[in-house]
Write a structure and sequence with these properties.
single chain, 567 residues, alpha+beta, Immunoglobulin-like, 5 domains, eight-stranded antiparallel β-sheet, six-stranded mixed β-sheet, 9 helices, 33 strands, disordered N terminus
C-alpha cells in the first residue's frame, strides 16, 4: 500500500510539471512516468525474500526439533527447503511449514553452522545453530585421517541416471567394501510428529550401471532410482565422509514409498545323496531377497550352514563336499525384509528418449527375452505405429497384453513365442513377453521374480511365484509394471488394490518379496560340473545346482517360501 501511494504521488508531481513544458518535452516526461510506474509496480509484485528472525533452540542436539520464526516462508513447502550447515533434512523431517513459522527436525548427521531457508533461487539470511555435543577437532592433513573426505560434487543437482563426479581424498584405490549413498525417504503415518527417525540412504546401484569410475581422489557414479534431495555421503572400511547436500530436480514424475511391511521369510533345500564316490562336490546357488528402493534392510535371521560365497549377484553359493551315499542334509534359511508400496505419478509429455549405456544394455535380446525375434518385433510395431513417447509406448503395449493375451495360473507356455501365437500365457511367460516387446520398442527394462504374500486374513495361505517388469524412464528411474496383477490373473487373496489395470502400470503394492531383478548370470564352478536349472521359479538365475566329481546321483527338494511373520 505504501508503494502504491508513493506511485500516485510521483505521478502527480510529473503530471503537474507537464503544464510548464513544451509539447515535445511533455511527451518525453510522460514516457518516463510510465516506465517508473511499471518498474515500481513490478517490484511490488515480485516474490519476497524469506527472512529468519529467530530460531529456538539456538544450541541443541542433532535429531532434535527446531523452530524457525520469520516471514515470507510461503504457506506451503512445495519446492522450498531448509539447510543446516549445508545439509538439508529429509522430506519426513518437516513437521510444520507456514509463512511465518517452520518446525523441522535437525539431521542426525548434521553439524554446527548457518541455517538458511531456500525458496526457488531466493535464500534467506543465515542464523547460527550450534551443536551441543560437537567438540572442536584439529584439522588433519591428507596423510593423517583415513576416513573419506568430499571436497566437491559436480553437478550439485540432478535426476536418476545422470552422472555425478565426486572429488576428495581417501576414497580407496578400489570400490571393494565401499559405496556412495544418496538420501531416501518414505511417507510415515506416525501420530507423533516430533518422533526422531534415523536418516535413510540408498546406495548407487550396479543394476543401473551406477559405478563408472573409482580412484583414491575421484569417483564417478550415476544417480540411483528412488533418491530424494538430501545428504550424499561415501562409506569405506575406514569410516564415512561428512555428508554434503545434493538436490534432486528435473524429474518427469514423482515416486513415493509408503505403507511399510516387515516380513520374516523362511525356506530350505533338502539334499539326499543316492550314489557317490569320493571326491565329490555339490554346489547350490540359493537366492536371497534382493535390495531395491522399495525392498530394504534385508537381514539374515538364521541359517543352518555357512555359505562358500556370501553374496554374488544376489545369490549365496553353498558348497557340500565328500557326500556319502544314503546321507541327507538340509540347508535352512531365514531372512527379515522391509517392503514398501511404491506409487508413481508421471507427466507423460515430460518423458524424453535417452541413449545411454544403461539403455543399450537393457534393450538387448537374450535367450530368456528374445526381443530381436521377428515375430516379437512385428507384433510390437503393429501396436505402436508411429508413437515415439517412451511412456505412451509402454502403456500401449501393456493395454494390448491385457486385452489380447489370456493370462492364467493354469496355463503353461513353453516359451513366449508360443504364448504370443496362442494368445495365452502363464504369469512368467506373460511378463517375459511384455518385457521382450518393450525391448523391441527400444525401451530399457528388466524382469523381476519373487513371491506374492497372501493378505493378512489368509495368513495360512501359501506364497505364490510371481513376476513383473521394471521399465527405466530417463531422469525418473524404474517404473514398476505388473501385467499379471493388472489382468487380475491371481487368486483374490493376493490382490490388495482396486482398479488393478490402471494401478499396476506404474505402482506396486507391498504384498510381494523379490528374489531377482534382471537376469542373474552365474558362472559354472568346475569345467566338468553337471548343471541344473529351474524354470519359472522365484528367481530368474541361470544356475541353481552343480554336481562335480564322483557325485553320480542325488535328489534335491527346494521348499516353498513361507512367511513366518508379518509386522
Amino acid at each position: 500500500m505504501k508503494i502504491k501511494k508513493k506511485n500516485l504521488y510521483i505521478n502527480y508531481c510529473i503530471l503537474h510539471s507537464l503544464g510548464k513544458t513544451n509539447p515535445n518535452r511533455r511527451f518525453a516526461v510522460l514516457q518516463e512516468a510510465l516506465v517508473i510506474t511499471f518498474f515500481l509496480f513490478f517490484l511490488s509484485c515480485s516474490p519476497k525474500t524469506p527472512v529468519i528472525l529467530s530460531i529456538d533452540p539456538k544450541i541443541g542436539k542433532m535429531g532434535e526439533v527446531i523452530t524457525l520464526t520469520g516471514s515470507n516462508f510461503g504457506e506451503a513447502r512445495v519446492e522450498a527447503y531448509v539447510t543446516i550447515a549445508g545439509t538439508a533434512p529429509t522430506n519426513s523431517s518437516y513437521h510444520l511449514w507456514q509463512n511465518d513459522k517452520i518446525v523441522v527436525r535437525i539431521p542426525e548427521t548434521g553439524e554446527s553452522g548457518l541455517i538458511y531457508v531456500h525458496i526457488g533461487r531466493r535464500k534467506s539470511n543465515g542464523v547460527l545453530f550450534s551443536n551441543l555435543s560437537s567438540v572442536p577437532k584439529p584439522i588433519e592433513g591428507e596423510e593423517f585421517g583415513l576416513e573419506p573426505r568430499i571436497n566437491s560434487v559436480s553437478p550439485q543437482t540432478g535426476a536418476p541416471g545422470m552422472q555425478v563426479t565426486i572429488t576428495g581424498n581417501n576414497f580407496g584405490g578400489t570400490r571393494e567394501g565401499s559405496g556412495v549413498y544418496f538420501s531416501w525417504d518414505y511417507e510415515t503415518p506416525s501420530i507423533n510428529p516430533f518422533a526422531v527417525n534415523e536418516p535413510e540412504f540408498i546406495e548407487v546401484s550396479d543394476t543401473e550401471l551406477g559405478y563408472e569410475y573409482w580412484s583414491m581422489r575421484e569417483i564417478r557414479v550415476r544417480i540411483p532410482d528412488g533418491v530424494v534431495s538430501g545428504n550424499l555421503e561415501i562409506k569405506t572400511p575406514h569410516g564415512k565422509s561428512r555428508p554434503v547436500f545434493f538436490d534432486i530436480s528435473g524429474k518427469p514424475g514423482v515416486k513415493t514409498f509408503k505403507e511399510k511391511r516387515s516380513y520374516t521369510v523362511s525356506y530350505s533345500v533338502d539334499i539326499r545323496t543316492l550314489e557317490a564316490q569320493k571326491p565329490n562336490t555339490l554346489y547350490l546357488w540359493i537366492p536371497k531377497p534382493i535390495t531395491s528402493p522399495s525392498q530394504r534392510n534385508v537381514s539374515l535371521i538364521s541359517r543352518s550352514m555357512e555359505p562358500f560365497i556370501e553374496n554374488y549377484r544376489g545369490v549365496s553359493l553353498f558348497k557340500m563336499e565328500s557326500l556319502v551315499a544314503g546321507a541327507s542334509q538340509t540347508i535352512n534359511l531365514s531372512y527379515r525384509v522391509e517392503v514398501y508400496t511404491a506409487e508413481s505419478g508421471m507427466r507423460p509429455l515430460s518423458v524424453k528418449q535417452e541413449q545411454s549405456p544403461l539403455h543399450a544394455m537393457y534393450t538387448q535380446g537374450t535367450a530368456l527375452i528374445p526381443s530381436d525375434n521377428e515375430r516379437i518385433k512385428a507384433a510390437t510395431s503393429g501396436i505402436l505405429g508411429r508413437e515415439q513417447n517412451p511412456y505412451v509406448k509402454a502403456r500401449l503395449i501393456y493395454d494390448w497384453i491385457l486385452e489380447n493375451i489370456f493370462i492364467s495360473q493354469n496355463s503353461f507356455s513353453p516359451d513366449i513365442i508360443t504364448a504370443l501365437e496362442q494368445k495365452q500365457a502363464d504369469p512368467c511367460s506373460a511378463v517375459l513377453l511384455y518385457t521382450a516387446m518393450l525391448r523391441a520398442a527400444g525401451l530399457p527394462c528388466i524382469p523381476v521374480a519373487g513371491v506374492l504374500v497372501p493378505s493378512e486374513r489368509d495368513r495360512g495361505g501359501q506364497t505364490l511365484h510371481h513376476y513383473w517388469t521394471e521399465l527405466w524412464i530417463a531422469d525418473f528411474g524404474w517404473l514398476p509394471v505388473d501385467p499379471v496383477m493388472g489382468a487380475g490373473a491371481v487368486p483374490s487373496i493376493y490382490i490388495s488394490k482396486q482398479d488393478t489395470g490402471n494401478y499396476y502400470f506404474g505402482s506396486m503394492d507391498n504384498m510381494r518379496i523379490a528374489f531377482s531383478r534382471g537376469e542373474p548370470v552365474l558362472s559354472q564352478m568346475e569345467s566338468r560340473g553337471r548343471l541344473v536349472s529351474h524354470t519359472k521359479s522365484y528367481s530368474l538365475q541361470n544356475i541353481w545346482e552343480e554336481a562335480a566329481g564322483g557325485l553320480e546321483s542325488y535328489s534335491s527338494l527346494w521348499g516353498d517360501i513361507t512367511i513366518s511373520g508379518i509386522y
